Amino acid sequence: MTAELVRGQNHPLPDTRLEIRVSAGHPVVAGATLADEGGRVAGVEWIAHPGSPALPGVEVSQQAAADHRLAVDLDAVPAAAHRLSVLLALPVGVGGPTRFGALAAPFVAVTGLDGSEIATYTITGLDRESAVVALELYRRQGAWKVRAMGQGYEGGLAAMLGDQGLQRPADLAASILEAVSRGLARSVSAPPPRVPEAERVRHSTSAATQAPTQTSMPTTASQASTPTPATAAEPTTADPMTVAPMAVGEPRSATDPAPTLPVTTPAGPSEPPPASTGGGPINYAHPRRRAAAPEPPRQAPPVPVAGDAGGWSMDERLYNQVWGMFEDLARTTAAYRSACDFAESRLDKELDGVLSDPRSRIGGAGDAARQAARARHDELTARAQEVLDRDLDQLAAESDVVEPALPAAYARWDNPVWQAYRVPMEAPMAVRLGDLHLPERTDLRVPMLVRLPLERGLWVDAGRGHSEEAGLLDETELRRLAMDTAVAHAARLLAVYPPGEFTVHVIDPAGSGAAALAPLVEAGVLAGPPAAGAAGVSAVLARLTERVDLVQMALRAGAPDALPPSLDTAEQLLIVHDFPHGFDDRAVTRLRYLADEGPAVGVHLLMVADREDASAYGPVLDPLWRSLLRLTPVSEDHLADPWVGHAWTYEPPRLPPGSRVLPQVLAQVAEARHQWGR
């Protein structure tokens, strides 16, 4: 059965040799890019476009056309490529529409070699965009899937290529449009089906026996006929984009380059079978009617394996796999919500149509129409729910396998890996700051991994925010939880860095965070005692500001070896509690300076504060809050992803009740620092 996809929805591919058909109703440029697991295109050699139409495993047309046929052989795609994106763009600058919103919605279908549709997608919702990523074929756990993308770009082909990570996208876009304007047109046939070796030998032997003067190798349509130039339809205007493509099986021009993928004529009988002379049963089948291809067997979902993503090390593979899970959860949920919205919209439209007709407002006809509309709505939502449940069950199975295999930097505090913790000899790629989940399935949680070194500071919000859980706590308890959360973050950062490569400072002007800071103080892992009072605040900020200035000057001068020997070159973390109490105007200015300039030279902030407490400063501190990653000590849905804009619910890291993991880990960190300092 054909899967009718909506934006963000994915579907498994039963085969790796496919054809992608595009119907746009107006000439468009079709292209394709190959990307690694992180979505990065290595260079122009990984993009197929009219000026360079062939890549390993994919071939596109050399012209703009209303209909395209892209040949794909996923087995021939390089092992380093994990994504194949299908790109469509309007040939702007040569006349005609300049935005997809002025045209009918483009339609894309993924089909098998026999023409049977596997998945289709109508790209709706486009307006001012003149380029769009239509589909994405991607590897997931050793199998290939197709995802409906529909990501449009108002900046056109150049903006889309730039987002694919290509260098000088404007120049590349101009060269593509120039190649299109030359009208080097031909369409692409599907790759031939694989023929078993024994079958090829049998056919070859038979052909050699019956016609010894001919070669036993199979020939393509272009090989079987004399090469002649392709006949193009006469354009109705001077627009060079209207040249019609060659049909599959037409003779190829002698000047056309040979395609990367083999070109064959479609299989199927063309002459009626000879009449039976042996008195057997008569075949009444129509000689030109091709039987429907059997539906491919439904494949079982692949068994999840921890670390099956790309990467040079197990840590990198697990990091990429976690982010693949995050993206899959985001996309499949977006597809479900989009399908439900579409079903509701269509139901409203159909009910309005029934009510607008006086003949169907009352009586049996009106009731039947309303029931039919609701039945169609229920069928759509049920189908969307079925797909969502399938994808979520697969992700849950993957999470059950991946979570126990995570290293300490990525693991929850209750993971047994912490019981066997040893101070690492090198810093990891990332660190876990909590969990993320969506309301469609709250028990399916994805680790929130943030790359190291930190690119921005952290802010543990001690205010109530918009969380229902925070509203049930009093102010004192909420502030205590915020400080406990900050200490857990700091302890994890200390634990994942090698000895001597991470230093923690604390500012606690009134000493109100002493109870939460006790594990760090007692273990002796701080650079010094928590700074108290206005003088202590000023001294710590002055030292860190001076360090930022010195490192910046050394880097700008190209002389990092000129830094003073006494300068601590380790990554620095400053925990600021109870802000803005104990901060004068000068201290606030230094704090803002550290937030803006510090991360680039290894100085990071971890603020524990309620923004309302600093409201007296007005908008002066707005840049400070915006520069920090806001985290909460209780669950709250406030984090948005860049793909589909979901409001993810953030779960802070929690230590198991009564656990001794934190002091045990900090004791090992302190011992390693002591041994390193000798």
Structure description:
There is one protein chain. This protein is α+β, with helices and mostly antiparallel strands and 678 residues long. The protein has 3 domains: 3-181, Lipoxygenase-1 (Sandwich); 314-405; 430-677, Rossmann fold (3-Layer(aba) Sandwich), CATH 3.40.50. It contains 13 helices and 21 strands. The chain has helices at 156-163, 169-181, 197-210, 221-224, 314-356, 364-405, 468-471, 475-496, 514-523, 533-556, 585-597, 622-626, 661-677, and strands at residues 3-5, 10-12, 17-35, 47-48, 54-55, 58-59, 65-73, 83-89, 107-111, 117-122, 131-140, 143-153, 430-438, 441-451, 457-461, 502-507, 571-579, 603-609, 628-631, 636-640, 647-651. Strands 1, 2, 3, 4, 5, 6, 7, 8, 9, 10, 11 and 12 form a 12-stranded mixed sheet that branches. It has a 5-stranded parallel sheet with strand order 16-17-18-15-19, with helices on both faces. Strand 17, helix 11 and strand 18 form a beta-alpha-beta unit. Helix 1 (156-163) crosses helix 2 (169-181) and helix 8 packs across helix 13. The radius of gyration is 32 Å and the shape is globular.
CATH architecture field of the largest domain: 3-Layer(aba) Sandwich
Give a short account of the largest sheet.
Answer: 12 strands, mixed
**Amount of helix:** 25-40%
Evaluate the radius of gyration. Answer: 32 Å
What are the segments in which pLDDT stays under 50 over at least 5 consecutive residues?
Answer: 184-280, 282-293
- The overall average pLDDT, rounded, is 80
Strand composition percent: 15-25%
Please state the overall shape, judged from the principal axes of the Cα atoms: globular
Per DSSP, the total helix count is 13
Computed structural class: alpha+beta
Q: CATH fold name of the largest domain, please?
A: Rossmann fold
- Compute the number of strand runs: 21
The CA-CA distance between the termini, in Å, is: 70 Å
Q: How many distinct domains?
A: 3
CATH level-1 class of the largest domain: Alpha Beta
